[in-house]
Each structure stands twice: as C-alpha cells, then as structure tokens.
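Protein in question quoted for reference:
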Amino acid sequence: MARKRKGTPVHGWVVLDKPKGLASTLAVTKVRRLFDAQKAGHAGTLDPLATGVLAIALGEATKTVPYAMDGEKLYRFTACWGEARDTDDAEGSVVARSPERPSEAQIRAQLPQFIGEILQVPPAYSAIKVAGERAYDLAREGEDFSLGPRPIFVRDARLVERPDPDHAVFELSCGKGSYVRAWVRDLALALGTLGHVSELRRLRVGPFSIESAISLEKLEALGHSPAALEHLRPIATALDGIPALAVTGPDSVRLRTGSPILIRAPHFAHLMQGHPEPGTDLQGLTVLLSTAQGEPVALALVAQGELRPFRVFNYGPSP
C-alpha cells in the first residue's frame, strides 16, 4: 500500500521575490511549508547572491515546470570591473586583478558581440553535471575539470548606467541555460579587463514578473491564512502560448486515465485558427486540454486524428 503523501492538495504557482542570501532550495522549502503543500519545485535556480523572481510550483503545477523554465528571462545586474572571482560573482575569492577599466563607449561597442546566438562556457561553480557530479561540488573540492562551450541565446542586452569607472549596470534578456556570471566574465575579457557580477536581480521568468511577486517576509506574515491563497496563481499560467481546447466531462475522464480522445471538428477548426495556411500539418502539436470551467486536464499531442495525453493533471480542489 502506497504511503499517503503529507500535506494538503494545494496546486498552483507562487511568484516569490527571493531575498538576497537565501538559497533557492531553501526558499522553495519555506513556501511549501507555508502552504502545507504536498510537493513543490521551481522554474530555475537563483544563486544566493541574487534576488528577484523565483517561480515556485506547488502540487500538480510541478508538472508544468519545464515549460516555465523554457521561458525567456530578464535580469538587471551590476558588473564590477578589475577582479576575476572563482565563482564569477561577489561571493567568490579573487583569483586575478586588472588595472584596466573600460569606457562607456568601449562597452557599447562590444555589446553587439554578446547578443544573439553565442557560445558560452558555464561557470565552474554551476549545477551542471560532470561525470555524474555537480560542477560546484567538484570546484569546492579543488578537482581539476573543464566545461565545454554551449550555445545560448541572448535576445537583448543594454547598458543601463555606469555609476563609476569600476561598475556598470546592465539589463539582459536571454533563453534557457544562459549564465549572467559567464556573460559578464566574457564581456570583461573582450574589453581587456576582468570582471564579475556584484549584484543580480531577476525581473522575469516566462510569464512570471517581478510586478506580481510577493516577498517572503509578507508571505510569512500571512501564514496559513486564506489571504495567502490569493497569491497562488493557476497551474496553466506557465503554459501561456500553448494552444488550449475545452473538453467535455466524458472526454476529461478518458484523458485522466491516460486514454486518447478523437479530435472533433470544433477542435480541429479551433487549432487551425492559428495556422491560416491550408494543409498545415498539426502532427506533434502540444495542446492544453481543460474543462469548460478552465480546470487543466492534460497536455496532449496531436497524432493521427487523436489527442494523446502525455501529462495528466490529477488533483482535488485546493483548500
């Protein structure tokens, strides 16, 4: 007999404004306990140094985490010139120094080289696995290893201000797998100096923005009160951009058992609205299926005239 999971069936997203100095895993644990949720996860780690948007999934929302993680991210951060740190941020030890300081004109001239599809070597202190071990664990143990370059996408980067010769403030929007610390490190080298991140704030992850975030302090003040549930966003929030279809009660029952349903004529017509060209092939399209009341039922693939569920949402009502 399976052991009953502790906690209550709370399902949805909490957009936390993570405070500085708190690890993401600990932030998730705190939020899960505040909501007494059975399970929790997050859509992208923030280093302890960083603040800002940490999107935390509770209950069945954890099944949508990969879609939130694939969303574009927006950061505002400060680069400190003249010092290289082993962690590429202010928490690390100084490993080299440079007397060179780039001018504003030099910074602006180099920025186009760090926008678009570029190759980036992740920081040694990162969660990437090397032979089954986390890179940051190997780095702390003094192990000798190297990480290869990886393609990343930076949609935009702009210099916001240069408060003094030692610092520059940037905003950067980027895709999954991008490291701001590595971006600053590489920009500094291209400018003929050294650099690291001294401050970092995440302003957006996919559909989750800092404007809708709540501080941990305020959330803890609400405790287990009904007011805390007002900050719980729907499961489907992370699925913005995925075509959605409403299904009937009998179809939702079939889908929740993992069985496919036929694509009805209204379904097909609705899906084709976003594809005006005749003869568009919908095979392999991911679709969000929900009840008429908007309750997510499943994520399904279009295949051979059917909607085949590959991720099913099974939950009772939130408290």
